[in-house]
Specification:
Two copies of one chain form a homodimer. With 388 residues, chain A is α/β, with parallel strands linked by helices. Chain A is built from 15 helices and eight strands. At the A-B interface, strand 1, helix 7 and helix 8 of A face strand 1, helix 7 and helix 8 of B.
Chain lengths: 388, 388
Amino acid sequence: MNNFNFYSPTFFVFGKERENETGKLVKRFGGTKVLIHYGSGSVVKSGLLDRVKKSLSDAGIWFAELGGVVPNPRSGLVYKGIEISKNENIDFILAVGGGSVIDSAKAIALGTLYDGDFWDFYCGKRIEKALPVGTILTLTAAGSEGSMGTVITHENGMLKRAANHDVLRPAFSILNPELTCPLPPYQTACGAVDMMAHVMERYFTNTQNVEITDRLCEGILLSIINEAPKVMSNPDDYDARANLMWAGMVAHNDTCGVGRESDWASHQMEHELSGLYDVAHGAGLAVMFPAWMKYVLQQDVMRFAQFAVRVWGCEMDFQNPEKTALQGIERYEQFVSSLGMPIRFAQLGAKAEDIPTLVKTAGLGENTMGSFVKLTEEDIRKIYELAV
Amino acid sequence: MNNFNFYSPTFFVFGKERENETGKLVKRFGGTKVLIHYGSGSVVKSGLLDRVKKSLSDAGIWFAELGGVVPNPRSGLVYKGIEISKNENIDFILAVGGGSVIDSAKAIALGTLYDGDFWDFYCGKRIEKALPVGTILTLTAAGSEGSMGTVITHENGMLKRAANHDVLRPAFSILNPELTCPLPPYQTACGAVDMMAHVMERYFTNTQNVEITDRLCEGILLSIINEAPKVMSNPDDYDARANLMWAGMVAHNDTCGVGRESDWASHQMEHELSGLYDVAHGAGLAVMFPAWMKYVLQQDVMRFAQFAVRVWGCEMDFQNPEKTALQGIERYEQFVSSLGMPIRFAQLGAKAEDIPTLVKTAGLGENTMGSFVKLTEEDIRKIYELAV
């Protein structure tokens, strides 16, 4: 097992009607002037935003508002948020929404305490501080409610890039599964796929003898596999929504990933895909992950066999472990298909002739991507081709 | 799933030689005058204490020392620690040792900021504040390095009682698996049993549809079952020690227990046992747990069957689930026996004729203990008898 640090100081407030505690929580974490950040009108129409505002007002907390975050959140709105925050001396960013809103809020939190261009942090500049962020999660997927990460797409070139630091872990996150019940099946499924990817990107590792994190990863995957179909057939199944919601957090706050090398090549390749076509992140992952798995399988056939047996309940073929390994990948494809997800380029609206563009935008040059297998530009091209 | 809060703000610093970062970490968390708290001479003899002191000195941090913590830590030393802390204006307690040392340090941290008797908090007084505690863990078992709990035995009557609050979660915990390699097999085994108990006390619940925490619990148990025997046969197996060490933390920081009722009756009954005989906590649990399981089995046969199948790999007897359930309990007994642990009173040095005393000390009266099954005094007596 590798040496590691693990720090997940977020205060999680989970369950029914917990959003009514927002004001109290902002106060607890030192907020006095809040920027409420959200996406589309759904949080307005559902009355959630009103409940949140009431809770803030009841606690005597001043707030400004900025809506309009889109999936694959853009730099333009981040610049606007930073401007408001600086002008109004905002000291707390409150994200009401899914991963995109939270990621955008984290970017604003970074940029408000920085004199330069916030995008610097997404180009590798070292992060030192950020305003505290609180979240009220309405979509189980990205894990941003407990993670140290944020992903933003810059409108100049549609570059999708990530920034990571412990100061970006939310001060508090309110997780009310009821808020996720109105989600359409497609978005629910995208969320499940995203969560599974967060686990699998930690699972496929060259680090040996990490049984505890292997088992935690497998446990989270098994839960998602058990609960996601329940939600698809009954969107109001509170317990299934609740299980998915906690799974989504644990999948990405790194409890299940410490002490081992992880591999984010699939995520990176998907970022190029959703950057170019503006498809849902989860849908892009559903297409890219099996292609990546098939391509890197030979790196550790037994690990893929373990995945097949422990996660998908495949019977181990002791004469031919590769057969079992391939069966695991096939089961993954069947599962995400059963959720209504695409598993090939065409289903996504992506085109084979764009592959050179995707490879070029990834901007690898002579560098490599990933760690389980270090992928060259040529490798990436082949993986995109496998996804066609 | 039940509503819950989850807050585990401890900064975990895991791996080889990480104790050399102690000074830096104390500084990061605001400590300027430290009380180093430890147990027997082993941390002195091994040179660990010297390395820790050097790290503090290098960081310019003043410290006092208080050794002598014993297993099932006593109130007497806590009073002494509080006196030192108050006299010397200590602002940070540093525990170097296992769960007993950490629990004792937490008690000192509580008492230093309180004018009354620290024992009040172990008798139900509401906790509001405590000095920050840092830990350097040398024994994987109690999970106190990440938990909100502390258990102290009062010398007046040998009462063993717990106190719990989020302010008792350590500010940082250094987990270096190498430090656990010198542990004798008996203590290692006791640790594994304690960790398993922390998981099982969360696992056996009346809360329905908590798949994610079920699966996390099972994953942790599977890891311990896989790794503990490796450590018993090769005490210097770093990776196995490391897996156990992270499992011990996750088992008890509540990641795997949120959203569900848990049941601590076995722990409570063991407390009476180790209070009276001063046996190792893990050894007492190895005896009490199977007795408790057999007694409460009928409450939810299918949950015990799930435990047998998923954790112990038993084949499900669909005609007779109770048979499978009992097989799981048997496998647990076989496993802890294989680690050299006692599973009956006699092996522990406990006596059937003391059962009335054990029941009386528990002090239930007309109250009940536990939640999976609410146990009366009569139930407890029967469970102790099953353990004979």
